[in-house]
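Ticket #4471: complex job returned nothing on first submit. Input attached below:
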Amino acid sequence: MAARNMKEERGPTSGQLEIRFSRRTALVGGIQAALGAVVAARMTYISIFENEQYKLAAESNRVNLTLIPPRRGWFIDRYGKPIATNRADFRVDLIPERVTDKAKTIKTLGELLSLDKDDIERINRELSHARGFQPVQVKDGLDYESFARVSVRLPDLPGVSPRQGFSRFYPSGPAVGHLIGYVGIASAEDYAKNKDPLLITPGYKIGKDGLEKAFEDRLQGKPGAKRVEVTARGKLIRELSSRSDTPGKPVQLTIDIDLHNYASRRLGLESGSVVIFDCLTGDILTMASMPCFDPNSFSDGIGALEYKWLRQDDHIPLLNKSLQGLYPPGSTLKPMAGLAMLKHGIDPEETVSCGGGYRLGNRVFKCLGRHGPMNMRSAIMKSCNTYFYAMSNRIGYDAIAPAARELGLGQEFALPFTSQRYGTVPDSEWMRRKYGKEWSRSDTLNATIGQGYVLASPFQLALMAARIASGLKVDPHIIAGKRKPAQHLPFPDEHLAIVREGMDMVVNGAGTAVRSRLDLPDVRMGGKTGTAQVRAIKGGQRGQSGAWKYRDHGLFVCFAPVDQPRYGAAVVIEHGMGGARAAAPIAKDVLTFLYDREKAMAALEALEAGWGGTPVERMQRSLDAFIAASRGPTREDSEAAQKKQTEAG
Amino acid sequence: MTNGIVPAPIAGLPWRLIFLMFAMTGFGTVILYSAAGGSLTPWAGQHFVRFLVFLTMAIVLSRFPLDFWKKITIPAYFGALALLFVVELIGQVGGGSQRWINIGFMTLQPSELMKLAIVLAAAWFFDRLPPSKINSLDAIWPIIALLGVPSILVIIQPDFDSAIAFAFPVAVMAFVAGMPLLYFIGGGASLAAIAPLVFFFGLKEYQQNRVLIFLNPENDPLGAGYHITQSKIAIGSGGVFGKGFLNGTQSHLDYLPEGHTDFVFATMAEEWGLMGGLAVMAGFFFLLRWGLRVGLESRSRFGQLVAVGLTAMMFFSIMINLMMVMGLAPVAGIPLPFISHGGSSFLTVMISIGIIMSIERHPARRQFG
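Support reply: We reran it on our side without changes. The output follows.
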């Protein structure tokens, strides 16, 4: 076999192999040198032609630019008192992309900061949605000790970022939730819009609702910056340079915050709104809407349970009732109707005899009583429907609607609030447009007493009161500043005086709100009560009993002092059953506060003793009860609740 | 050579080579000093001391005659194979891949010893093979066997990088030993053909990822692609003259992983720039040129093949390392001789140098055949 192989394939000789070796080794050497040249060329390319790019990359590795969030501009009231301020705040955040062991880190933080289940759930949820650098808040409002506890453990907690900063603080708590709105962490969409790195800086909040949102640009300020050298693991080596922040500019409101806080507290257990205007300038002094959320808990990042608690409340604390609540205004529209009638030639002294109702065709429109002969003043005083049925039937609603609009009903206002609702002032044209049918006389009768299609917000009712009181067509203002003098309303002073006299008698004569006359030596309040049906009267059953949500709304519009009006106001109490019963007493106390704070406070404190404390205290109790009920009572929870309460106190 | 002042044994040392190695290791020590943030510990001091020990050893090895290397080839090969078996067993007991054996002052990686043993064994085989048989099948299967068994052992570990490191010098040796050119052309073509198969069925997932990430490092900026990206940033930001000694940020701020071992070249390049890089490459160029020259000048076929094989082996580590740090090759755990901190591979290189020095000292008679 070997011999055959030898014959078939004659191999090379040793000498030939020696030559092959030399040649091939030289070739190998050449190839190696060539590869070496390729590598050298590659390095030359990287370090010369791509040098600039990699220098930048190395620099951006090394230097971590941290923005210092600017302090947000304050909101102050008309006298300079703070409405929204900033509080020094120790906080801890997580930078998701630097966290190595999520579960362990959160567990350790949970122990160090005694986080409750709600917090941990939220952190886990936000961490799973977080994008790269966007920090997730662990907790803010920490005391220095907790802050220090985390700071010393930093080396074994990559991704944890303790910071000192400022957080928004609302001294008035829930009283200003609807007025001011709240701030919160910018959303991913906010960031996607302009990629401003400030938006994802821990501790930076933007206005999310209300005036906080509307004045974002002014309040924002300019961020400071800190350049630090950091290692790949985020450890700080040294500070390179820094620039401090420029705080945002303050915004001064027309609000009288003491009055506003008082009004909010005075609303008590009710669901409702108090709006007060300076009737000479149109300044909004108070725009209280309760119940409300506490904007402080929103700026801290609200817990899922707390939000659920707000959502389930049938008093709708998330709705700004002053601007967004629309109600049939009821009899509060009668002074306005009176103005329209005077304008259309009705003699205010002409009487209509009230026998308990008004017959239109074969239908009888009821009055609240049998008032006997009524002229305009007494009809306003007694809130006599019959008088207004008769007179409006004479002139028609198309004659009344323009007066309603003159006084601000159904009108839009240029106010810096994101959502307002403007209500409805119906007339025959509106009816055709909206429903394609003709306006009927019974529609007129209904509309005149503020039922049927008429809808208005408490804000508009207060403006109406302010305009009637001053006779000026004042525009509403929330931002303090100089005003152009307002024009006179297109109603003669004599007409206005007649209507105001009627309203004076409502409170100070023999009217529907005599129990709410001001207990002050030289200030009189004029007003008009209103009771608005929530559902149609059935079988004589009025909305004066039964389930809360079917009861009538109570409304009251007023002004003071009667002899030289300065304030115009409206109080609306949802399902308060009657204006005289629910709304007027509140108006009385709130207006009293303007003249005699001690007297007003005494009245309020007596009431709050029966209600179970201030709104903040009542809300906390309700929230704790809600949390306990939704989880089932465990020892842990009651401890946490107790802790929360002591923190709040 | 002797000039009377220095004794003959010392004057007879290959001083130029020794100086070159001193220069390179010295530079390596300086880089490791910087990599430790300006400290001799933990790497620089040990690195240089090790070099001195290994250099002494290499000089001693250079005294052994060529026959000695021939004689120990077979025991060395089977010894290294046995060690590979041992780590394989220990590794399986330990439940993961284990490549090292602790031998006190350093940990030994048997696959490093195997690299040497394979070169010796391949040279031994080609030396014994009758020249006329070089074209026959008889020349192929023993090579495949002596390469295949250790390769399978390291692939099981799994350490695919070592398997390639075994194959490369053997292929170069087979080429210079005179195997038909057709084999290499055909072999190259079939490698290209089976590469996808190996990729999909032969590689572990993490190895596949390394290749994929190499092809597209941006896909994984925080994972394995991070190494390549940061290494390129270090090299590229150094520019022509570097940021200066102890001024590198990539390495000092830990952006560059493995800055003292596999990515030491990037650490160097950041502070010393292109100039430093070219200097290091020039050093390797002279070293490898010396190795090939020794092969070319040797009159012993065994010596020729061993010198070329060991040079190819060193070339492979150097080239793969440099290509890796510059993003031209996937990340592989291959250190840079003389510069990287590490025991086993440095030892392998110094033994290789010792053996090549021995070949240089013993060129043997010209063989006529």
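Residues 1-8 of chain A have pLDDT under 50 and may be disordered. Closing as resolved unless it happens again.
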